[in-house]
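Appendix B. Raw example, untouched.
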Amino acid sequence: MKKIVIFSNMYPSENHPTFGIFVKNQVEQLRNEKLNIEVIAINEPGKGKVLTLKKYLSWFMKSMFYLLKNKKNIGLTHAHYAFPTGLLSLIGKKLFKIPYVVTIHGGDIDKMPSKHPKIKQMTAKILKNADRVIAVGERLKHNIVNDFHIPENQVEVLSMGVDTDVFTKTEQSKARESLGLNHEEKMILFVGNIIREKGISELMQAFARIQDAFPESALYLMGAERNENFSEELRAIAKKHQLTNIHFKQPVDQEALAKWMAAADLLALPSYHEGFGLVALEAMATGTAVVGTDVGGLSYLLQDEAGILVQPKDIDSLANGLEKGLVHEGFSEQKMTEMVQKHSTTMVIQKLLATYRDVER
């Protein structure tokens, strides 16, 4: 197999170790299979319109120069996210006849096309010209096929997978001891960017409602604070409800995150939309139950009592879900294990390799 070029507008760096970590994880697993991989990616979040524009222009020029220089040695390109990343692969196919795969993660279908008709038009073109479209969840595949009229046999469902060598079951007391956490508290963990669309405002209000029933509970919000005004809004909610047991934590690396998940009683993921919800699968792999909203990939991951599904933007439903989870009701550990096994990185990578071979042929 010839060289494979991975394009992504999210990829970790030393300063931003969790930015697009799921893409890096997959790249490393592909390299373990002895594939020749070149990554051309943006490795830091945007900071203002001007700097973001410069960053994207630099990335675009670097990508085009690489394709031009190495076109005879490239077997295919793989774009993570349709727009703008998929545009690089589309141009590579049009100019140099290089086939491409594009992975759809959620927001590139659910949100990005609605920003401007031109973006929707370009997204459709990227999808229609792709040699294979990968959706990280069943609902995304449905949207791609129906909203963008892509033939069903051109779209496959393939999650990013969970690394069960990293996210593995650990005794809760040992995990808490290694992190210096209280052994007695009921610990609810959220992992993700601190933004409104993740449902954090509703989570804090739902947490306030269960205080009488669970006075020993604590809520840990782990993620990058992307919006100063929203962060202030969250702190105002904490002050209003006199919540002294809420802790804001910065993102950590994968090994440390696995410990935090094993230490928790519950992972809460009350997102408004979610392409797949990999952090939910990672928590399940550590043996921690998940309370998540009935949206996107979470509807699939948490079905049949693999987790606890609640309604999005519904504080009562979320509070009820948290209460169920804290008393170990509403989910099945066996179903959790089955879901994790189905999405282990070992299985995912073998399927992805088969896709690469098909496309290159």
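End of appendix B.
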